[in-house]
């Protein structure tokens, strides 16, 4: 009795589908937990924007 080549391909596909669905389930369950985790705020996060002369010139050019 000879095994068909397509039989091995089908098994590979079924394994991939099972692993993919398991990974999707884990991702969907863990996503809300990750989104709900508190984020550390630092003092430097509010100082990311600096208005320089170049920026002021750009804003001035918009109103012309």
Write the layout of secondary structure elements.
Blueprint: H1 5-36, H2 53-62
Structural commentary:
It is a single chain. The chain has 64 residues and is mainly alpha-helical. The protein has a domain at 7-32. The protein contains 2 helices and no strands. The longest helix has 32 residues, at 5-36. It comes from Shewanella aestuarii. Residues 31-40 have a biased composition (Low complexity).
Estimate percent helicity: 55-70%
Strands, count: 0
- The secondary-structure class comes to mainly alpha
SSE string: HH
Based on the structure, what is the oligomeric state of the protein chains? single chain
Q: Residue ranges: pLDDT <50 for 5 or more in a row?
A: none
Per DSSP, the total helix count is 2
- The average pLDDT value, as a whole number, equals 76
Which strand-content bin applies to the residues? under 5%
Please give the alpha-carbon distance between the first and last residues.
84 Å
The major β-sheet equals: none
Shape: elongated
Alpha carbon gyration radius: 27 Å
List key phrases describing it:
64 residues; mainly alpha; 2 helices; elongated
Concise description?
This protein has 64 residues and is mainly alpha-helical. It has helices at 5-36, 53-62. This is Formate dehydrogenase.
